[in-house]
Amino acid sequence: MFLHLGQDIVIRMKDVIGIFDLETSTISGTTRDYLAAAQKSGQVVSISDEMPKSFVLCRDSHGKTTVYTSQISTATLLKRSSFTDEISNF
Known about the structure:
By secondary structure, the chain is α+β, with helices and mostly antiparallel strands. It has one domain (2-88). The protein is built from three helices and six strands. It is globular and about 35 Å long.
């Protein structure tokens, strides 16, 4: 199954490690440091020019980690991910 992150970006659900709220998760210095290091190493993909509300941490089958920043809220992304689970049950 796939998850639409916004704009034209769609990722495989099996690659998703976590969906995080940008405002609350960056309270932690560890998270801020991780995101800064990921940005520096080119692992961050900004989906929109708008202010991001969430980030999705992914790892593909080759072990490459990518952080997608999205203007879509974590609640909406979680609903979308659950929706795909419901469809697969039919």
